[in-house]
Design brief:
By secondary structure, the protein is an alpha/beta fold. It is 40% helix and 23% strand. The strands form two sheets. It has a four-stranded antiparallel sheet, with helices on one face. Strands 7-6-5-8 form a four-stranded parallel sheet. The longest helix has 20 residues. The radius of gyration is 24 Å and the shape is elongated.
């Protein structure tokens, strides 16, 4: 029904349209995509672009689309924050307190822990608290390598725990690590 000439013209027009659209494609801004603007449309929509930028300035320090999640660390005036798949994970004072308690309380109850297993990196504060004098080894099992990399952007808060020689980092499924490993641990903490 359709002639060869029509198909050639239609194919050429489609190719030209695709080229034009590829040069005019919107820029994906990871900072905006990971802050959940769709949740706050009623707050954002009345603002002009310049008002939005001045009120909600976000300065990305780390962004990585990992195997299982998108990791986004950013600096806002007075605070560093970490978001996983757009959900705020760490950054506020309460979370710091929680990570400190996760690292300190097990030491208090055990007394003389020599080795520990930490499941998940968090912001790295729990790892820093676990690396107290007397602990010989800390095995950190993190399923998402990008999340461990993101903790390097919180060095002031976690005192650069990754430089401690007693730290052993494993990437993979924590459940699998527990089920296949035969090493006994004095402390096992899930962050």
């Amino acid at each position: 029904k359709w002639g060869k000439g029509f198909r050639t013209v239609a194919s050429s027009a489609t190719l030209v349209a695709m080229l034009i659209l590829s040069f005019n494609a919107p820029i994906w801004r990871s900072a905006v995509l990971n802050t959940g603007p769709y949740l706050y449309t009623d707050v954002y929509s009345p603002l002009s672009e310049s008002e939005f930028k001045s009120r909600y300035s976000i300065f990305p320090t780390f962004y990585h689309e990992g195997k299982s999640s998108t990791i986004f660390a950013f600096d806002i005036p007075g605070s560093m924050q970490l978001r996983i798949d757009g959900s705020e994970e760490v950054g506020d004072a309460e979370r710091h307190s929680l990570e400190i308690l996760l690292g300190r309380i097990p030491h208090l109850f055990h007394g003389k822990a020599e080795n520990a297993l930490l499941l998940g990196a968090g912001q790295g504060i729990t790892a820093r608290c676990l690396l107290q004098p007397g602990l010989q080894d800390l095995v950190l099992v993190e399923p998402e390598p990008a999340r461990y990399q993101a903790t390097h952007h919180f060095g002031r808060a976690n005192e650069e725990y990754w430089n401690d020689a007693r730290l052993i980092v494993e990437f993979g499924d924590p459940k699998r690590y527990l089920s296949t490993g035969d090493e006994p641990f004095d402390l096992i903490i899930s962050s």
